[in-house]
Specification:
This protein has 941 residues and is mainly beta. Helix content is 5%, strand content 47%. It is built from eight helices and 49 strands. It is globular.
Length: 941
């Protein structure tokens, strides 16, 4: 599949220049005055100087995410770090699809998050303004300490704590407006009429005769989208500190409108930390993070894309039914698609979901015997989600018959209610030995950790009753409960689920350097889990890495060009515990059939799957090697790394009689990471920087359950020799132009064909088109991704811009393909369909009734390459002496534009699509990543 050129391909050329050597970006309002070789980074259960490490850790300063209009901090990392892929969804409160160095398992993709020492699956509860730094751990040397959680990488989040000094109060506030950048191209009323009547004619049916009734030209996207959606963020932080006690408190509020009407997200966050120095060698601390969110009632644009544009949203004809929502034409989609505006307006604010999270933590730390430190940490995570909702009943107008009918055929109002609770307790005990003797610098750490998690959920639904003397349940939230007087008890149904997970771990790490030139890092961890079968619950994980700081050798001194050069490499065995179940040794029973006893029918129960006594976690064998360097008095920085990750003993769920789990198969991901950067000053008042990154990734399924085994995940196939998530189907080599063309081509065995239908390629050369002619038609993993930033500062005025792009991936279009017999609206490209010999060799004839043209093929493949102006910010930092007159320590005003412009070749709201480990990059038209124009102010007192 050849890629179309981007509209502005010259922009790609700059990706070879200006990237920071450590994957670290520059704060938006400052230009670094010195290279951060001596920076301290989080490494899991501790900290270390970056130059003493042998692995790849990228550090992003909290200032990079604090003033961006995003509820989840990880959303702002897109394009910032080599090897880190972030696919955002524009829906408020959504979680991004995050992958570090490709896809390496079939069960999960996201990295593990560690927030101030506690493991988390998501960081949507964090206020971006509370973040001190985010470290992205990518290599085995830094990840093996996390054992069975380390295979997909890790993101360590450190939040702000109080510092010694005067009391300070920081305020930040921003307000922004949303708008759409891209949108799918679909036909208007004129185009729809042409294609629909042609559809009918190609089926031998008469033309549609009711366009006199349905004569509107409605853009359903505009009808339901939120115009001028707003986003606002407000934060206050109070910090006070002395040599004995350091305290900080913060409070944040965010409110965001979605791209569809009545999608509203609202969140409150609170954070407190208190660090106490009891004696010279004894320290203690306590803190908590909390969040409370009102979650949006999420909708999609799917019905707006499919609904015919010839219908007016509301009946405007005078009479008894004036003002009711119109039904779609009975012959054109009414049975499959409801009026999109009726769905949004009629169901507004009828689902009330809330999320609450509370994370207290405490620690005690003391020094002894000169070189030893012992730290005891305790973490509690409590998350509670609740919701209740209502399905209303209301009438819609049927224009053909001048009657009304219940919307969606619903005669009874319904109510739903749910609650889930997730409670985790984590503790670890850490003993650290640190000593420097002669040319030797040694740090040893040993730890013990336990994690206990309990999860429970309840959900239920019920209907109203026509015989209830009170009538139907009203559209009033006070009645939306399962025990409401309006509920018919006979229809009440409740489901529950629950599980417990326990993990115990022993681990250790060594950081050693000789003469500050030769470094050796090693980690070892043993994880035991209740999820595995008894007798096989423990697994070992380990890594070793080495580095050589060449620039400290005598032959490199005073060369005038190379300031710093370190060669590094590491190898390790990491783990992966992603799994859909919690008890491999104790499967639950599910209904598997029925039996008759004494004339009565009873359900029969079977095991959900067979026990697997030898099951273990997946193991990822990974290695990397590369270098870090700076040149020309630290103005130029360069880094390059090659990585190779191979996951073995994949955790497979095998469908059989009975179903069972087993370890089998392997996946490989490999590639290169390049980063470079330049920073300099011109005179005393002007400074500038240019930095970015480039990453290549190739994935491959090395082997599966057995030779020849393959399985499908939608349009994707899992098969040895192919990339992970590869799209599978037929190659289209043109359109049959005539019956003579059909007779002169390989015969089709997969469906009847006629002129104007696809001509599939006979790949195996057997003279006919069969399922054996299917092949890989696309790869959702890009050949490379890149991001770069430019910025300048002049006397307090600053300008920064971030850019991001991907190249070489394919997207599978899963909408507008005529994939249903229902008459949906059409993509605009369908106007270029085949209407006779020579009219088109790509767009087939207009006929929705043939399944032949709906086979997965290269017709559905789109070029996924795109380039985006990710963020632009311009502002002014007021002179400190000037603002000090008004009792201020600092004042910053800025204007920010996020997602300013995206150039792509995908017909949809966005060119990027996440998904599961085995199916991603599928274009369902998506949800907009909106352009957000915002203004903000930061003040410190």
């Amino acid at each position: 599949m050849k890629h179309k050129n981007l509209k502005y391909p010259t922009l790609i050329a700059v990706l070879y220049f200006g990237m920071n050597a450590y994957g670290q970006t520059t704060p938006q309002d400052t230009i670094p005055k010195e290279n951060k070789i001596e920076e301290v980074v989080m490494i899991g259960y501790g900290t270390a100087k970056k130059r003493d490490l042998t692995g790849s850790i990228a550090k992003v300063d909290g200032a990079e995410v604090a003033d961006k209009p995003a509820s989840n901090p990880v959303n702002s990392l897109q394009g910032k770090v080599a090897g880190l892929s972030v696919v955002n969804s524009g829906q408020p409160g959504s979680q991004a699809d995050v992958r570090i160095r490709g896809t390496v398992t079939i069960n999960g993709v996201n990295p593990v998050y560690i927030v101030d020492g506690v493991f988390a699956n998501n960081i949507d509860f964090l206020n971006p303004a509370d973040i001190e730094s985010m470290e992205i751990l990518k290599d085995p040397s830094s990840l093996a300490i996390f054992g069975s959680r380390g295979a997909n990488g890790a993101i360590i989040v450190t939040t702000k704590r109080g510092k010694a000094g005067r009391t300070s109060v920081s305020l930040s506030s921003s307000i922004g407006i949303k708008s759409l950048d891209n949108r799918p191209n679909i036909t208007n009323a004129a185009g729809f009429k042409t294609l629909f009547n042609e559809d009918l004619a190609n089926q031998g049916l008469p033309a549609y005769n009711q366009f006199n009734i349905f004569n509107a030209d409605t853009n359903w996207i505009d009808a339901i989208r939120q115009k001028g959606g707003a986003i606002q963020q407000h934060n206050v932080t109070i910090a006070n500190g002395s040599d004995k006690n350091r305290m900080s408190f913060s409070f944040g509020y965010q409110k965001e409108d979605g791209s569809i009407k009545y999608e509203e997200y609202e969140r409150l966050t609170m954070k407190f930390n208190d660090d106490l120095k009891i004696t010279k060698g004894l320290r203690a601390g306590f803190g908590f993070t909390g969040s409370y969110a009102k979650l949006p009632q999420l909708r999609s644009f799917s019905s707006a894309l499919n609904a015919t544009p010839i219908v007016s949203p509301v009946n405007n004809n005078p009479g008894e039914f004036f003002g009711l929502y119109n039904s779609l034409p009975q012959q054109i989609g009414a049975a499959q698609i409801g009026n999109p505006l009726a769905l949004v307006e009629g169901h507004r604010y009828t689902q009330l979901n809330k999320d609450f999270q509370f994370n207290p933590n405490a620690y005690l730390e003391f020094d002894f015997a000169k070189h030893f430190t012992f730290r005891s940490n305790y973490f509690l995570t409590y998350r509670n989600g609740t919701g209740r909702g209502y399905e209303p009943i209301f009438d819609i107008y049927i224009p053909e018959s001048n009657t009304v009918s219940p919307y969606s055929g619903r005669l009874l109002s319904t109510v739903n209610q749910f609650e889930n609770r997730d409670l985790s307790f984590q503790q670890n005990q850490l003993l650290t030995y640190k000593n420097k003797f002669g040319n030797h610098d040694l740090t040893l750490m040993a730890g013990f950790e336990t994690i206990n998690r309990e999860y429970s959920s309840m959900s239920g639904n019920a209907k109203s009753s026509l015989s209830n003397p009170l009538g139907q349940m009203p559209n009033n939230p006070r009645f939306w409960y399962l025990n409401s007087d309006y509920v018919d008890p006979v229809t009440r149904a409740v489901n529950t689920s629950q599980y417990r997970q326990k993990q115990v771990s022993y681990f250790g790490r060594m950081l050693y350097s000789y003469n500050n030139k030769y470094m050796l890092n090693a980690s070892l961890r043993n994880d035991g889990s209740s999820m595995l079968a008894p007798g096989n619950r423990f697994s070992w994980f380990w890594s070793v890495g080495g580095a050589w700081e060449v620039s400290k050798e005598n032959f490199m001194k005073d060369n005038g060009v190379v300031d710093y050069l370190k060669i590094k490499g590491s190898y390790g065995d990491l783990g992966n515990q992603f799994t859909p179940y919690s008890y491999f040794g104790y499967p639950v029973y599910v209904e598997g059939g029925t039996g008759v006893f004494n004339g009565n029918l009873y359900p029969a129960f079977v095991k959900q799957y067979e026990e697997a006594e030898d099951l273990t976690w997946e193991h990822l064998k990974s290695y990397e090697f590369g270098f870090e360097s700076t040149f020309l008095k630290k103005r130029l920085s360069l880094e390059a790394t090659y990585y190779n990750k191979r996951t073995e003993n994949l955790l497979n769920y095998v469908i059989g009689n009975p179903n069972f789990f087993m370890n089998s198969g392997s996946i490989e991901a490999k590639g290169f990471e390049f980063t470079a950067g330049w920073k300099d000053n011109i005179g005393e008042n002007f400074s500038y920087f240019f930095n970015g990154n480039l990453t290549t990734t190739k994935t491959k399924v090395l082997n599966t359950l057995e030779d020849g085994y393959q399985t499908f995940y939608g349009p994707a196939i899992y098969k040895a020799g192919l990339p992970v998530g590869a799209f599978y189907g037929y190659e289209v080599e043109g359109i049959y132009q005539s019956y003579a063309d059909i007779l002169g081509s390989p015969a089709s065995t997969i469906g009847d064909v006629g002129p104007g239908d696809f001509k599939y390629r006979d790949l195996n050369g057997d003279g006919k088109i069969t399922p054996d002619d299917r092949t890989m038609i696309g790869n959702p993993t890009p050949d490379f991704t890149y991001g770069f930033s430019v910025g300048a500062d002049y006397k307090g005025f600053f300008l920064n811009a971030d850019f991001y792009g991907v190249y070489g991936n394919e997207v599978f279009r899963d909408w507008g393909n005529g994939s249903s017999f229902a008459p949906f609206n059409y993509r605009e490209e369908r106007l270029d369909r085949w209407t006779g010999p020579g009219t088109s060799n790509w767009e087939p004839r207009s006929f929705s009734g043939t399944a032949y043209n709906r086979e997965n093929s290269t017709y559905m493949i789109e070029d996924g390459s795109f380039f985006r102006i990710r963020n632009v910010q311009v502002g002014y930092n007021f002179d400190r002496e000037l603002v000090s007159r008004y009792k201020l320590q600092g004042l910053k005003l800025y204007f920010n534009v996020q997602n300013l412009k995206t150039w792509d070749n995908v017909n949809g709201f966005t060119p990027e699509f996440g998904g599961s480990a085995t199916q991603f990059g599928v274009n369902t038209s998506g949800y907009p990543n909106p352009r957000i124009v915002s203004f903000g102010i930061n003040a410190t007192f």
